[in-house]
Amino acid sequence: MRRSEVECRDDIDSFAPGLLALVESLKPSEEHKFRQKQLVDSVAKSVGKEWPGARLHLYGSCANSFGTTNSDVDVCLEMEIGTESTVEVLLKLSDVLRADNFENVEAITGARVPIVRMSDPRSGFSCDICINNLLAVANTKLLKDYAQLDQRLLQLAFLVKHWAKQRSVNETYRGTLSSYAYVLMCISFLQLREPKVLPCLQVMEPTYTLTTEGTECAYFDKVDQLQDFGAENKDSIAELLWGFFQYWAYRHDYRHDVISIRMGKTLSKQEKNWTTRVGNDRHLVCIEDPFETGHDLGRVVDRQTIRILREEFERAAAVLQYDDNPCVTLFEPYDYEN
Ligand code: ATP
Ligand code: MG
């Protein structure tokens, strides 16, 4: 039998309670949320002095419900910047934050999305601030809406994000994948599962639309009308976690396919024109951004890190299949460079 056709072990469901207990332990506490709010309030105060018209949005995992105890705080400032460039505003913002006693303030201006990164000694959090990046605000809402459809998405994503952090494969600067990419992989997997656990909100009649930087972000956001969508699928979280790793270890066609939560199915690299390397975009693992459809979240992966990722997916699938104590072994800390 090919490894892509292997069935999961008979006792897989016996590991669900252990995995769910782990999920609970990863959820941010009320105290954690309170400290996050304090940080956001102090950022708002600093920003308000210099830019009274600025609107502050939270994005990323502090707003999309995929935040864990390890997550940072991501803030987007929506403001008129007149003739100044985003980079000039970020440099000015760095000075303002330093003057207000935020620590390790650093403007990262060369990134695809320029940000100011800093830490807050009062709350202990680190925080990324970007300007007018409303696409991130829109994709945050999309992820949050998906999370409300079936609790297994949140559980799966918490476990996958925790696994990725423990196994050191959640570091884009080293050529592995962002948390955002892993959440998209989880959504795609649940859209492809039979019976489906999640629908595809972007192919339905849009009830939410936001247009920014020439990109239209539109989808059906009345998720309370879709609460029973995944009910026919009875898979436990343990079976889904195994299925997720099995998919990425043996079933995904890395050579030809692109995952797309926008379409709720895989697309071909050919139709995306993602068949050859352009600059640093190698397109070895292809994950289409749901709104910026020309953006491949897997573009950071190179020949070495695709091998590391695939070995980690294979290890995870094997641990869930054969190990006596998978809830512990799966998450054993490891760094491929040490
Ligand atoms: P964590 O809990 O690890 O902080 P996160 O969901 O906040 O996870 P990040 O990787 O910190 O994920 O990204 C924050 C947000 O920035 C994402 O939710 C997404 O909106 C946006 N984002 C991150 N990386 C990209 C990317 N490569 N392309 C487009 N948007 C991105
Ligand atoms: Mg974050």
From TrEMBL:
Catalytic reaction equation(s) = RNA(n) + UTP = RNA(n)-3'-uridine ribonucleotide + diphosphate
Q: Which segments constitute the PAP-associated domain?
A: 236-295
Query: Which GO terms label this protein's molecular function in UniProt?
Result: metal ion binding; RNA uridylyltransferase activity
Query: What range(s) does the Poly(A) RNA polymerase mitochondrial-like central palm domain occupy?
Result: 20-148
In terms of superkingdom, the source organism counts as Eukaryota
Cellular compartments per GO CC: cytoplasm
Keywords noted in UniProt: Cytoplasm, Magnesium, Metal-binding, Transferase
Instruction: List localization entries.
Output: Cytoplasm
Give the enzyme's EC designation. Answer: 2.7.7.52
Quick check: keyword Oxidoreductase in the entry?
Answer: no
Q: Which cofactor does it need?
A: Mn(2+); Mg(2+)
Q: Which GO terms describe its biological process?
A: mRNA destabilization; nuclear-transcribed mRNA catabolic process; positive regulation of gene expression; RNA 3'-end processing
> Per the similarity annotation, which family is this?
Belongs to the DNA polymerase type-B-like family.
Q: What is this protein called?
A: RNA uridylyltransferase
